[in-house]
Design brief:
about 270 residues, Carbamate kinase, binds adenosine-5'-diphosphate
């Protein structure tokens, strides 16, 4: 029997910041986050199951931008790029799971590209049989953003932000916690405007206004990080929290169900 499930997504921006010019881990932040997860896990493990998902950050962004494989496999060389991108994501996953295991979490590397099919860049099928059984054993599956098989174009990118809500719905999760590098969802990208105000709650009542804010912020932020994240969350019923993983103990508190600064999404 599985217990109520918490899905924790650790943003790539936290553990492998996109400003780096080559694959680089921010070990200081990673170690502190894994310690927080380990400490909260000890307290909740008898009552809850945990799934961790991490982003790719500079382990994914750089090679994908350079090779263009998110648009598909267009040459023989792209096959090497596809394979090398997956290998790099595995490498980051080994580093993350090693730190989690050191902190007493039975972190089980889970390669989503072995279970998922994409269609024109969107997740089309994700077979959850294995992850459900893994949860029954009590391990903590640790999935991550990956280049995955696309039935139209050979390859596209299955991001951690897409895996999290998909699994939340399929596994009937209790909550999703998104740890990123800003305090939550703002009226505009807080890294680009001092006028940005934190939106504490997203509900049906303010949904239209929020969508307007997000499309405005996406106009400035070409990668549309937060827009993608939130628009995926808005397609599901699971309660979600978006919080700042750079701030000490916020991940731990959220895992323990304590109120904390950030944005709550409850539709
Ligand atoms: P992660 O790698 O943690 O998943 P992303 O880089 O995908 O994070 O998304 C987070 C980034 O989105 C923030 O660093 C922020 O600069 C940007 N962003 C754009 N618009 C907004 C907004 N309206 N509110 C908050 N963050 C925003």
């Amino acid at each position: 029997m599985t217990k109520p499930i918490i899905i924790l997504k650790i943003g790539g921006s936290l553990i492998a910041p996109k400003t780096a010019k080559k694959p680089t881990v921010d070990f200081k932040t990673l170690k502190r986050i894994c310690m927080e997860i380990g400490s909260a896990y000890k307290k909740i493990k008898n009552k809850k199951n945990l799934v961790v998902i991490h982003g790719a950050g500079n382990f994914g962004h750089l090679i994908v931008a350079r090779t263009g494989i998110h648009r598909g496999i267009k040459s023989e060389k792209n096959l090497i790029d596809f394979a090398e991108t997956q290998r790099l994501q595995n490498q980051l996953n080994v580093i993350v799971t090693k730190e989690l295991i050191k902190n007493g979490v039975p972190a089980f590397p889970f390669q989503s590209s072995g279970h998922a099919l994409m269609k024109k860049g969107k997740l089309s099928k994700f077979s959850t049989g294995a992850i459900k059984e893994l949860l029954k054993t009590g391990v903590v599956p640790v999935a991550y953003g990956v280049p995955a098989c696309d039935i139209h174009q050979g390859c596209s990118i299955l991001s951690g932000d897409e895996i999290a809500p998909y699994l939340a719905e399929k596994l009937n999760a209790e909550a999703i916690i998104h740890a990123t590098d800003v305090d939550g969802v703002f009226t505009i990208d807080p890294k680009k405007s001092r006028k940005a105000r934190l939106i504490r709650k997203i509900t049906r009542a303010n949904l239209k206004r929020i969508k307007r804010c997000l499309s405005e912020s996406a106009a400035i932020d070409v990668t549309g990080g937060m827009k993608e994240k939130v628009s995926k969350l808005l397609t599901m019923k699971t309660k979600a929290f978006i919080l700042n993983g750079r701030k000490r103990n916020l991940i731990k508190h959220a895992m323990l169900g304590k109120a904390t600064r950030g944005t709550v999404v409850k539709l």
